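Milestone 3.1: sequence recovery, worked example.
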C-alpha cells in the first residue's frame, strides 16, 4: 500500500508552498493568481509529450513558459514522451472520442507531480480544472477518480471550482482561505475572463484542445499504428505528425512529405532500418518506407513518391534516389501510380 503524502513545510521561510500544474491556458493562469493572492509561494510544473500541440523542439511548452513569465512564477518542464507511451497503449479507463486516454494521462501526470511535491516540500498541488468543462476528464466522477488513483486525495486543490467539492487539507488547516476560492462550472469561460482585469492578465491563448490524440486525423493514424505495431516506440509516434501515410502491408508503411519543410523533418526521423526516397527529376518529396527490412514495396513506394512529384493526373517518369544506408544511393525511374491505388493505401 502506498504511503500517505506527508509533505514538509519549508522550515527556512515557514511560508506555505503550492505546486501548480500550468498548461498556459486562461484557467491555469487564473488558478495560479488565486493562490498567489493568498500569499502562498507557487512553483509551476508542465509536462510535455510528443502529443502536445503547443511545444517547440528544444524549448518545451511555449504557452506555459509565457504564462509563467507573465505571472512571475518559476516553471519546471518535464518531457514524459517516452513514459506516457505505456499509458496510451494500455489505458485502464479507456479512450475518449479519439485515441486520448485522458483519465489515465491525468492520473500519470498527477503522480509525477506528487513525487515533485514531496521532493520540494510543498503543501499541496493545484490545477486550473473546472467541473463540467471537459466531457471525459472533468466530470465529477472522473475528477474524483483521478484524485483517488493518483494518491492525492486531500492534497489536490482546484481553485476555480473548489467550493463545489469537499474542502482539501490545505483549506482545513487554514493554509488556503476557502472563502476566496470559486465555484465555476460548465464550458463557459465568462467567469475566468471577468477575472482577467482584476489580475491584470493581458495575454492568454484561446480555448482549444492541446492534444493530438483528440484530433480525428491523427487518431486514425495512431489507431492504425497500434493495430499493426502494438509495440510501437517514440520514433513511430513522431513520424505520425508529418506527411501523408500509406499502409503497404501489416508490417510496412510509407510516409510521403507534403512540402519542403516536411522533407527535412521526415528525413531527420529516418532510422537505420528505413528506406528513404527522394524525387530528383523533377525535384519532389522525400518519403520513408518503414518496416521493409527485405526491400519489399520499393517499386510501389517509388511510384507513390512519383505521383506527388508530378501532381495529380500528370504523366511521365520521375528519377528517384533511394537508400537505406547513407552513401549507398541507388536510382530508379518510376511513373506515378494510379489514384485508386493511392486511395487504397492511404491511412
Amino acid at each position: 500500500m502506498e504511503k500517505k503524502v506527508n509533505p514538509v513545510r519549508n522550515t527556512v521561510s515557514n511560508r506555505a508552498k503550492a505546486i501548480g500544474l500550468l498548461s498556459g491556458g486562461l484557467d491555469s493562469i487564473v488558478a495560479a493568481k488565486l493562490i498567489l493572492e493568498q500569499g502562498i509561494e507557487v512553483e509551476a510544473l508542465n509536462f510535455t509529450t510528443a502529443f502536445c500541440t503547443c511545444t517547440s523542439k528544444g524549448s518545451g511548452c511555449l504557452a506555459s513558459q509565457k504564462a509563467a513569465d507573465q505571472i512571475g512564477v518559476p516553471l519546471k518542464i518535464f518531457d514524459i514522451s517516452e513514459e506516457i507511451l505505456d499509458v496510451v497503449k494500455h489505458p485502464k479507463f479507456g479512450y475518449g472520442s479519439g485515441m486520448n486516454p485522458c483519465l489515465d494521462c491525468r492520473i500519470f501526470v498527477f503522480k509525477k507531480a506528487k513525487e515533485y511535491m514531496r521532493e520540494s516540500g510543498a503543501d499541496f498541488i493545484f490545477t486550473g480544472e473546472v467541473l463540467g468543462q471537459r466531457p471525459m476528464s472533468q466530470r465529477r466522477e472522473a475528477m474524483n477518480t483521478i484524485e483517488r488513483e493518483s494518491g492525492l486525495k486531500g492534497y489536490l486543490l482546484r481553485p476555480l471550482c473548489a467550493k463545489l467539492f469537499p474542502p482539501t487539507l490545505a483549506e482545513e488547516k487554514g493554509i488556503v482561505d476557502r472563502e476566496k476560492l470559486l465555484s465555476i462550472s460548465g464550458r463557459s469561460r465568462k467567469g475566468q475572463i471577468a477575472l482577467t482585469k482584476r489580475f491584470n492578465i493581458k495575454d492568454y491563448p484561446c480555448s482549444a484542445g492541446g492534444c493530438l490524440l483528440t484530433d480525428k486525423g491523427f487518431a486514425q493514424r495512431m489507431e492504425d499504428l497500434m493495430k499493426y505495431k502494438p509495440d510501437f516506440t517514440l520514433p513511430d509516434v513522431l513520424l505520425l505528425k508529418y506527411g501523408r501515410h500509406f499502409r503497404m502491408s501489416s508490417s510496412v508503411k510509407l510516409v510521403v512529405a507534403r512540402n519542403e519543410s516536411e522533407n527535412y523533418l521526415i528525413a531527420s526521423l529516418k532510422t537505420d532500418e528505413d528506406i528513404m526516397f527522394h524525387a530528383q527529376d523533377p525535384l519532389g518529396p522525400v518519403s520513408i518506407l518503414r518496416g521493409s527490412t527485405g526491400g519489399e514495396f520499393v517499386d510501389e513506394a517509388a511510384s507513390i513518391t512519383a505521383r506527388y512529384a508530378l501532381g495529380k493526373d500528370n504523366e511521365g517518369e520521375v528519377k528517384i534516389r533511394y537508400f537505406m544506408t547513407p552513401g549507398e544511393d541507388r536510382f530508379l525511374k518510376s511513373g506515378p501510380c494510379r489514384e485508386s491505388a493511392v486511395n487504397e493505401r492511404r491511412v
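The chain has a mean pLDDT of 92. The radius of gyration is 25 Å.
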